Amino acid sequence: MNDKAGSVHKEKIYGPSDYKMDFPLPSCPGCGSPSACKIIVEALEELGLIQNSVVVIGVGCAGMGFFGTKMDMAMCAHGPSPSVAAGIKHANYDDVTVFTVQGDGDCAAIGAGYLINSAARGDKITIFMFNNTNYGTTGGQMAPTTLLGQVTTTTPQGRDGMAQGYPLHVPEILATMKGVAYSARGSIHNFAHYQRTKKYVKSALQKQTAGIGLSFVEILTACPVNWRMEPIKAIRWIEEEVTVEYPLGEFKNAD
Question: Judging by DSSP bridges, how do beta strands 97-103 and 53-57 pair with one another?
Answer without folding.
Answer: parallel
